[in-house]
Amino acid sequence: MRAYSAVMRNAHFLILLLLVPGAMHASEKKAPLITVRVHAEGSEREGPSFVAPIELAYPAKRIFIRKVPIVGENDIAAILPFSSADGSLGCTLKMDADGTQKIEEHTTTARDAIVAVLINGRIASALRVDRRINDGIITIPSGFLPEEILVLQTKHPTIGKEKEFQAQKKQALASLSKAAAAKKKTEKKTKTKPSPPPEP
To answer: Torsion over CA of 97, 73, 71 and 57, rounded to 10 degrees?
Structure first.
């Protein structure tokens, strides 16, 4: 994968590279266990009610993205996780019929524009639209944590393995439970660990 100008395999987007750490938080009455939202590039002229700034580290650039996403986690029909070169996880998303239509409309009218992917409110990837997408399949090249992929696996089947969804869901729930128990155990050890004596 080449930075900025290389087309991701089966991605239909170009990865734009690094983002300065930051996030745009959308208000939620009741937040789901995971949010995956694709936001379109906007203009500062649209005003703070409609857009928010993000900083790209390479190329160094400040852009604005629209607060209302093009698609979100409720538009996902199936997933295909994979390991990313930066040590995080990426995921190919297959949208449902409504999400497919929204992606097709955006990629038809916004060629060469940037989209930002927010996972649980944090900016994970910035991508550049390089072609019209009519199959509803987009690839988020990086930015997912292992627990977030497990949560997605409890909600959506793997692309091409839809019949195995119940077994996948059961395994993902077991893994989440195991991870939560391990985290709780670690936190308990940290709390009970005695402090070192003060230096004389």
So the answer is: -140
